[in-house]
UniProtKB/TrEMBL annotation:
<feature type="domain" description="Inosine monophosphate cyclohydrolase-like">
    <location>
        <begin position="13"/>
        <end position="203"/>
    </location>
</feature>
<dbReference type="GO" id="GO:0006188">
    <property type="term" value="P:IMP biosynthetic process"/>
</dbReference>
<protein>
    <recommendedName>
        <fullName>Inosine monophosphate cyclohydrolase-like domain-containing protein</fullName>
    </recommendedName>
</protein>
<dbReference type="GO" id="GO:0003937">
    <property type="term" value="F:IMP cyclohydrolase activity"/>
</dbReference>
<dbReference type="Pfam" id="PF07826">
    <property type="entry name" value="IMP_cyclohyd"/>
</dbReference>
<dbReference type="InterPro" id="IPR020600">
    <property type="entry name" value="IMP_cyclohydrolase-like"/>
</dbReference>
<dbReference type="InterPro" id="IPR036795">
    <property type="entry name" value="IMP_cyclohydrolase-like_sf"/>
</dbReference>
Amino acid sequence: MELLPQALTGNSYPGRGVLWCRTVDGSALGAYFLTGRSAASQARTLHLTSDGELIVAPSQPGEHDHLRHYVAARQVGAQVVFGNGEQVSTVADRLVSGQAPLLALDGLDYEPDPPIFTPRLTVIAEGEGSGRAWFGAARHSVGDRAATNRLTLHVSDLAPGEGVLMTTYRTNEDGIATGAPFTEVTSTARNRTDLLDELWSALPPGLRIAAAVFAPGELSGADLRQKTR
């Protein structure tokens, strides 16, 4: 497995990302991060609302853009749902209605932003120390086929220092492409604070916007890091 910092520093533009990780102290934690190249992408903040949701919002009052502004994480009982778009609210609502995680992640589509067609990445993570999580990725085919490829990954029994990472983008010899389906990583982070430090320092300094680390069932206590403006 690749070290988490190396997996990120080796990717000059990871875009948005989700991480499920068990730190050295045994804590099972979720993380979400934002990087951006355009001025509009950079003009965003990540903050907790009074309702306990983690929101990606414009840094200045302005028109809502459903591809850039959305609920990034929502608590559903002892579970937390997090991801890179408006599908987070859809999946959370499905869980509230009683659907199982696999069904709640079904039927999602990639973002309508040609030519790259950004994947929609979603994680449902369980609380109470179980360490179980379900990843969902809605991806465009590498060819011309328009139908969505849907990947579901069930992760359990992570050992301390192990994690799973998904990013929307990766950099290759042809420029920016959609990210790998998933990457298994290792982390030396001892606790939540260390994990946020490790994640933040590995993001491209000129592109990073915000990052958050949180435990399922404790989203209101998320640790946040923002770019200084």
